[in-house]
Each structure stands twice: as structure tokens, then as C-alpha cells.
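Progress narrative, work stream C.
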Amino acid sequence: MKKTLLSLSLFFLAIFCFHQRALAQYGDAGGYNNQGSVSGQVLVGSQGFGLEARYGISESLSGRLGGSFLPATANNVFTINGFNSTTNVSAKFYNVHLLADYTPSEDLQWLRIVGGAAYLYKAQGSIGVLPTGNYNVANYSISSAEMGNLNIDVSWKGVAPYVGLGFFKCFPSNVFNMNLDLGTYYLNQPKSTIIGTKLLADNYKLEPQVDSNLKSYRWLPVLQVNFNFRIQ
């Protein structure tokens, strides 16, 4: 826990220093009234990589339309006691989103209240289990080929509301600035699909139990850095 907090502190410190350097290099003074302004953003963070277009609706309100994608895979990140196997885990979260940023005061230009929603057209986590070696069951030896394999897929696909806070200004006064987003999506109820082959084929019966175990896993935190380039 201490290492996590230290890492987050160093991360925010690095972003702040980089942001201040960008202000010094490109300029970002004044400019509260951003009605009609247009900028493009490159997103990097916990929801992967993406792009956004931002438009200034009024001096304190802006809207943004964008999308992001997060593909991730890893092998043998966990083991099953008493069951020799290789495992692989993957996650794919792709979305298009529409958000609104509200700056509550001219004296708080560094703070934004953010709300909106995303459509996650792919929001899936997968676990694959491939048995290895031989297994002894009731005095019988069963090979890994006879055992089969097992795949568990969990989907949160659908519309997800978003709420959060933004830090630093929406629009650069001149060419470039950086800002941060910290918030969360509230995902749909997860739905699992379990497919097994051969001796593992009956594991599909565990789907209701897996759905029940995952029913509270509906929050998708967002920690995101935006590289913001003014267009108009």
C-alpha cells in the first residue's frame, strides 16, 4: 500500500512539473472565456490510449467527444492448487464517450467537474486454462489432452455513466497544455460465459455462481493524462 501511494505521489509530482514546464515554454496565462474554442487531446491512462475533440460551449462549460482502447494480456499470472496448467489473462476495453466539463469559478480555473457517459462496445475480461501433465483420478491416469481446456469470458458491454474531477484548464491559451482526469465509470452488470471441452465441459454450470461473485465489480476507475493542443 505504501509503495502504491508513493508511486501515485511521484506520478502526480512528475505531471505537475511537466505541466509547469509546458506553461513556461508555450504560455498559458489568462483566457477564462473559451466559448467557441476547439482543441484536440491525446489520452494516456488507466483506460488505455485515445483521442478527444473538445469544444467550448460557454465560458465555463465545454463538451468533448472521443474514444479510447485498452488491450492487455498476461500469461501465468496465477496458479491453481493441485492442478498443473498454463493460464492466460486478457482484458479489452474499447469505448466512445461524450463528456461535459464545468469550471465552477473563474478563481478555480484549475478545477473541473466532469460528467457524461460512454458506450463500451467491447468490455471483456478473459481467462484461459490449459492443463499440462497427467492427472490421477480414481486410479486412472488422465493426460492433459484428455482433460480438455477451459475459457472464462466476462463482459460489461453497454452504456456506462461517468463522473469525476478534472485538474488544470480545459483549453491552452496559446498552443499546448496538459490536464488530468480522475473519475470512474459505472459499468453494466457483468455477464460470464464459460466454455470447457472434454472432461471440463460441465463447468458451464458455474456461470450463475461466477456472475454472483462478480456482481459488485462495476466500477472502472479512470486516471488519465490529456495532452491538449488548441486548434481554434
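Work stream C, second folded protein:
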Amino acid sequence: MEHWDPSVMFRTVDIAAVAANGLLGGAVARAFRFDIVGFVMLAIVSGMGGGMIRDVLLNSGFPVALTDAGYWVGVLAAAAVAYTIDLGSRWADRLLIVLDFVGMGAWTATGTLKALGLGLHWLPAVALGVTTAVGGGAIRDIMVNRIPAVFGGNSLYATIAVIGGAEMVVFQELLHRPNVGMGVAIVTCGVLGILSRWRNWRLPAPVDLTVPRPKLRLGRRRIRRGPLKEQGWTPGEPLTRNLETVTPEQIRRHRRRRRRRVRDRA
């Protein structure tokens, strides 16, 4: 029996992820009723954009997307399929979700491993791994004038890539088993990604803090029997909102009262 080479499986998953993200780009192009050029462009950006960003930042030679013919075969085939077939059915959507998250694990692990191999600290290495996984989708959304989905408002995505990158760091730097780390990242991202879509797991929403606001008053202070109504300032609102406006006539009356009190005391 010949020795099994895990790199063959990883490359298969990698090309499948490129094709799956190319299909996602093609689905966006179909939603906007683009022509074949739009399908090809969005498929290329979705499938290979993150890896291009990573390789340009690492400055390690030509981006792999420009030198690996398998990537181009994957994205062009994906563009042709998306242009021909409507992928809006339930089974197609589920298949794309599985391929997307499994490929995310492969891309995150590959990007993290490449950054570690060039001597980067583990934290920027994980960041580059996440960029490899989500960069293409972010560029695709910007090209069609949409807020990138990775910014939030939906189920977990980039968070899962962070977990996969952290696992790759542990297996590479501490255990020195990169192939095992690659496999673990693929399985983890695939399982967590599918569960997050199924259970709609999300990160917590922003917290609304209120900062107490002082109230400007002139003249004699009145004593109130009841408790004062609590007021505050919410970030984003004008600081002068609901403040009393002091007119020049009020200032003159206040000064006259003060002069009168001084004369009475004298």
C-alpha cells in the first residue's frame, strides 16, 4: 500500500473551496442581473481575493492565485455554472454552506501556516489566516455596494475562522504537527460553521451606555421635595440637547439682583 499524502486531500478541499466561493460570487451576480463579465469578476474576487491580499501583504513573491492553474479552473467553472443554473434551491444552498465552511478551515490554516513560516508572530499570523478566509467575500460585497457580511448582523463567520487559525498555531508552534492542525481546522470550521447557521449563533449586540449629564441653572437654587428625574447622555446625541437656553435678558436680570443684594448688605 502506498504512503498516503495528506496534501492531496488538502489541495482538493482548497480547490473545492475556491469553486464554492466562486459560486457564491456568481449567486450575487445573478441577484443583481449582471452579464457574464460580472459573473466572472465576482467569482474571481470571491474565490481568490483573500489569498491575493495575504500574499501581497506577506510580499513572498507572486500570489498563489496567479501561479496555480487549478484556482483559475475552479473559479471559471463556478462562474459558468452560476451563469447557467439558478442556485437558489434549498439543496444547493446547503451544499454551498458546507463547502464554504470546510474551505474556510483550509484557507485559515493555510494562511496562518504561511505567515508563521515567514517568521511572523502568532497574532498577525492568525489575522492573515482570517483575511485569507473572509477577504474575498468582503471585497465582493464592497464591489456591489453592500456592507460586508463579515462585519456582523448575521450568524458567526469570522469568529469561526479565528478559532481555526488559533488551532493551527497550537499544532504548528507547540505540537509541530502542521498536517494534523490543517485537518483539525477544517473539521472545526466545518462543524462550527454549519451549527452557527443552523442555530443562528451571533455575537452580542453593542451595549448602550448612558453618561450622566449636568444641568445648567442660574439664579437661586430651588429645593424640590420629590426626586429629580434621572437624565443622561447617550453617545451620538448632541451634548446640548434639552439644556435650558440662557437669554441676554435673563443675564441682565441676574446681574441687577446681585447688585441689589450687595447694596442691601452695605
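Residues 4-197 form one domain. No further action is required on this item.
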